[in-house]
Amino acid sequence: MKVAVIYGGLSAERDVSINTGGAVLKACLENNYNASGIIINDENDEIFDTLMEYDIVFNALHGTFGEDGSIQSLLENNDIPFTGSGSVSSKICMDKIKCKRILRKNNFSTPDWFDLNDYSEIPKSFFPCIVKPNGQGSTFGLSLVEKMIDLDKAVANSLRFDKDVLFEKYIPGREITVGILDGKALPIVEILPSHKLYDYKCKYTPGMTKYICPANLNKDLKNKIMFDSLEIFNLLKCKGYGRVDYMIDENNNYYFLEINTLPGMTNTSLLPFSAKTANISFNKLVKIIIELGLKG
């Protein structure tokens, strides 16, 4: 089988994508696929003439263009099979505000929020809050704002990465993530960063974050979170695999933060870490994702 692994891309997450793409390509070759790595540097349509020569495209892009439905739409229009969620679902999931509105309408808990249009109306009681780009990943442009006086600086930081900004009520507590694979929730991972916030430095600097899988949660809470994660994944019409992030407060109430339709795929990323706990090796995980992509 011929597999094209596309990675790189146009977003701030290009370096993260290159790491994902390299790990996925290595796994494809070890799985005996006839695989090639193709680095995406622009939105050049000529690339699709090349991609049509392959049986499937493993989408290892992250962020803008790769994760927001753009590349998915182009692949769909060219009838090229690919891994992960389709264009409509990807576009919705990349839009954190739209996602939160859909989930709240369907009775899932998510922290209160404001968008950029309501910037001037944010009350002092809303602090501390999280300020982050509405359509970005890997914690780029993310800030924890303790006081209103620091808000302008955080907004300017977020606007470097996206024209829309999400202001989200900060929920102190435990951060967890739930991987989804082939219609099942994987073991829950608890994230213990050395900083107050799981920022870019904690996420990508070895030793700055401790990960526990399976997370130390009581059985009922664990089962409910895993059930809800699968419900959210299906509600948003995601496909194949993904990852759902939450905060759990001191009363064991859990709050949806966001869903990642193309989570990192290196040997140290959260989804493979969770899969390994479920006795799914990295190479097997890549194979499952490809097989799911071929099913459409």
Q: How is this structure best summarized?
A:
34% of the residues lie in helices and 23% in strands. It is an alpha+beta fold and 296 residues long.
Q: What do these coordinates show?
A:
The structure is a single chain. By secondary structure, the chain is α+β, with helices and mostly antiparallel strands. The protein has 3 domains: 2-84, Rossmann fold; 93-108 and 172-295, ATP-grasp fold, B domain (D-amino Acid Aminotransferase, Chain A, domain 1, 2-Layer Sandwich); 113-169, ATP-grasp fold, A domain (Dna Ligase, domain 1, 2-Layer Sandwich), CATH 3.30.1490.20. Helix content is 34%, strand content 23%. Strands 8, 9, 10, 11, 12 and 13 form a 6-stranded antiparallel β-sheet that branches. Strands 4-7-5-6 form a 4-stranded antiparallel β-sheet. A hairpin with a 2-residue loop joins strand 8 and strand 9 (184-185). The longest helix is centred in the N-terminal third of the chain and has 17 residues, at 14-30.
Task: Give short descriptive properties of this protein.
alpha+beta, Rossmann fold, 10 helices, 296 residues, six-stranded antiparallel sheet, Dna Ligase, domain 1, D-amino Acid Aminotransferase, Chain A, domain 1, four-stranded antiparallel sheet, 3 domains, globular
Task: Tell me the Rg in angstroms.
Answer: 19 Å
First and last CA, distance: 16 Å
Total domain modules: 3
Helix content: 25-40%
Annotated CATH topology of the largest domain:
D-amino Acid Aminotransferase, Chain A, domain 1
